Please model this.
Amino acid sequence: MRIARSFSELRTLLPRPGSCPLWLVPTMGALHDGHGALIDQAKSEGGFVAVSIFVNPLQFAPGEDLDRYPRTEAEDLAFLDKRGADLVFLPSPGEMVPKSARIRISSGRIGTIYCGASRPGHFDGVLTIVLKLFHLFSPDVALFGEKDRQQLFLIQEMVRDLALPIRVLGLPTIREPDGLAMSSRNRYLSPKERDTAAHFPELMGEAARLWAEHSGHPSKDPLSIPGWLSEALVRAGFRVDYVALADRQTFLPITGGPAPDQAYLLAAVFVGSTRLIDNLDLSAERPGV
Ligand code: PAF
Model:
């Protein structure tokens, strides 16, 4: 496995352009089986599999967990070597985000709602660094997890709007045996918080079942599901950041009118000081959709 720590090293270690398909898995490290699934998918397609590890300061708002975000380089390198990655890029903050850099990609309206409402500037920071990685690697395909559904939507939108010659693939969320979505932040949870966290996917699943039930019923309102879920989450011990229904095509919030066939249920909650996110594709809950 090749390791590059600077832009110039990266240039010498990347395969010659056009010599084989290049797959990129951008990460912030603290790798888990969710990342592993992205790498496995890339490996199974053949080609050259590159992984970047960079804790991107631009996507953390002041007061967020940038300083305590887990940095586990030795474990990550062993994990990637075992998984068969061909190249790991570990750039320095100084090179990725020089002090003089003022240009930012704007994530537009969708970047200011849901997670973007409570994390101002987060998605501008994500897109700025992802675009820089795309520029440095020129990958044929880039892989991201569907757990970060809003991030995935915005990256796909950026690629489309800027006509980047890159295929962006989203892969299903990988979950712990009790359903909790895998996340580098799960390691912040105390044993008691971890027990509480298990109720998050359970209640999301219950909300999705209610959605399917309400959708086929003339006297029930599927748009009441976010309110139901918020209350159930509070009762289970969470502080709710948001619960929302998003249109699957536009990602805009669904707040009125007839319930559409194709929607995502999105939620972010706090357990203690740890923020967890999850989402479900509700079209999968409606038979025949
Ligand atoms: O999902 C992540 O780990 C990050 O947001 C990403 C895409 C690597 C950008 O820093």
Q: What stands out?
A: The domain at 2-171 is CATH 3.40.50.620 (Rossmann fold). Residues 11 and 264 are 39 Å apart (CA to CA).
